[in-house]
Amino acid sequence: MENFSEVLSLFFVWDNFIAIAIGVFLGVVIGAIPGLTTTMAVALALPFTFSMEPVSAILLLVGIYKGGMYGGSITAILIRTPGTPASACTLLDGYPMAKNGEAKKALKMSLYSSVIADIISNISLIFFAAYLAKIALNFGAPEFFWLICFSLTIIVSLSGGAVLKGFLAAALGLMISLVGLDPVYGSQRLTFDDYNLMDGISFIPLLIGLFAIPEVIDFYQRKVASKIVISANGTEVSWSEFKKCFKTIVRGSFIGVIIGAIPGSGATAAAFISYSEARRKSPNRENFGKGEIEGVAAAEAGNNGVAGATMIPLLSLGIPGDVVTAIILGAFMIHGLTPGPLMFQDNLSLIYALFIGIMVSSLFLLVVGLGAIKYFSKIADVPKEILFPIIVMFCVYGAYAVNNNTFDIWLMMGFGVLGYIFNKTGIASAPFLIGFILGPMFEDNLRRSLLIGNYDMSIFFRGPITWFFIVLTLGSIFFSFKRWLAYRNK
Amino acid sequence: MKIKNAVIAISLVTSSVVMGLGASSAYADWPTKDIHLVVPYSAGGNTDVLSRQVADLLQKELDVNIIVENRPGAGSTVATGRLARGGRDADHTILMASPGHVIGASIYPNLPYDAVNDFKFIEKLLDAPNIMVVPSSSPYNTVAEFITAAKSKPMTFSHPGVGSSIHMSGELFKTLTKTKLTAVPFPGSGAALPALLSGDVDVSFENASTVLPHIQSGGLKALAVTSKTRFKALPDVPTVIETEGYDLGGFVTTVWNGVIAGNGFPDEGVEVLQAALQRVKERKEFTEFIDKMGAEKSSVSGEDFKSFIASEVERWKMVAEEAGVRQN
């Protein structure tokens, strides 16, 4: 009981509420601006937390993280420019919805889905941290390898009807992901001795180019501005639509939680896996990619489900799963706290105060998100003749800002042309992205497994987790093939 | 005509002298504008966090703004190459260097700059040891036991990326002990830790700040520290050099950070910064900060810093060649 009052006194101070509010607000705004990443925002905010109380400091950073996860979807939906890599998936159905005049509906669905996923992720953090952390520790390279294999099977389902074109796009994405340094030997691959290519192709310029630029080219080519209807107005999410999506949201949230709990996986992969699972299960399968509200819900649930869960390995094992949690780990250390098993013994009250704060931050996300939709959605009402040049400006700025490198602007333009060709030839860009994101993870974990196992293949079949994903992978291939046959015979 | 030429000559000479004086006196009260502190990595890493803290303290010492800029790319070589080239604001641009500076130079022979002679070495700020750690389930309790085992069977060490100080420490250990260690790369220390904790890999030479909490909680066992002397935070853990029965005298690897500038940086600026950074190092905030990072203050500066860099480049070049990671 004494502990309980200590927890309350640690949490119920104004500073904490202000920190959460500022954090979530900053996160949403920065997440919405292409090129400004959540990681950057959290890193920039870190020095300001040195002088704060530990709980407020961590909550400020967590707020930015969560706000950023959601904020990225705003520009993805409205102007087809993903603010963060993880929101690339939201765009697949969000932007078509906006084009059909359902921008507001898409934005609201994205927010509701984000908030629900966030809450589910928080609850998992609070109640299942110890259990999930154990899974995370047992999730080595071979387990990861099979998870990626399973995820790669979704290429088939994301290709629309054109499976061959889908594989082509995925192969191209895979090829582009090979550019850079070899992960084991450090030798240069496809870099043409250019130092700009040594770290590989940057993700943000690729995304911005691939999605935003083709729209711009298309607009100027057609010059029929008034016919493209993007409006922020329009209908709200109806109760029946929400009910329809609820199962998808819960499923996506748990996919996010599990992927978030495993260090080194990431929100982008979670969004795509959740999206493809939703598509596989949905009766409206054919409508995915053309403005299906369930697609928006699935993508956002996947990436926001990750946010709370990345704190699981951080708090229970002291292991940061991504760059943002690595910075948050730094913030803990600066305040003389060491996340890990010992923290649950020594600073239990502080952890529970943090948990309350993290739950409160989800509610703040809802409030700030509703406000953001109201103001950001005015973007959609700007005449297109004015809006498109501004979008190009943001594209150029966004591509440059990630690494402060002009090379990335050219890269972005190049991918813009590629995206345009994709659009004209009916090649879906989702498989391309999957190849680009999952390709390196596939290679890394394959080679890492072989190194760990001293090139003994039995490491790929070493335990229940590997077998679980092997069965899933084979099942997924089987059902995709069956569906494809049925489709062909139709 | 002659007189006219003479007048022209004299006026040219005087004007160039005056301009020369002007140029040298232009830096008399350096800094004259904001200073750019370049971090050659993305935001969020150890070097970045340190740089922001140092910028904050240096700002108080010098009374100008210190703008921290992240310029990641190709290890740290993109930002470092740009620093060497000079350009706009070169007289007010400094860079937070780390072992990446010397390791980059030892791995890539075709860098567009000379890691020693194209820079002015201002002040080394800190040193932190790496720690040789094994999973708690590991049967080995001393470095000697580990070496004996690693000679008889293939074993693995984890590292957070090719060319990191952790990777190169492992390669150096392998070379000196003639063991059969295999390097297993991970994308960052965060991803490498679970493999180490669960025993998927046998050993690592991780940064002290990363593994200290796990040593304290019992998840990892520290076999040795890689510095010359024992580490304050782990007084009972021997250094690798102390290992009996093996000559491991060459095995000293530390993670360090220091401030460098390009050759276009004025000498006046170097002096001002050296004095200011030495005052920063004396500040309580700095001491507390590096304590938490598991690091110790360095007192190396100027020419000594430069010769340290020169010897490090040579040493890692040899290790990189032995390990087969030197690119040609």
TrEMBL record, chain A:
The lineage of its organism: Bacteria, Pseudomonadati, Pseudomonadota, Gammaproteobacteria, Oceanospirillales. This is DUF112 domain-containing protein. Keywords: Membrane, Transmembrane, Transmembrane helix. It comes from Marinomonas sp. (strain MWYL1). Pfam families: TctA. The chain crosses the membrane at residues 12-33, 111-132, 144-161, 167-185, 197-217, 254-275, 314-338, 350-373, 385-403, 409-438, 459-481. The keyword Membrane applies. InterPro entries: DUF112_TM (IPR002823). The keyword Nucleotide-binding does not apply. Residues 18-433 form the DUF112 domain.
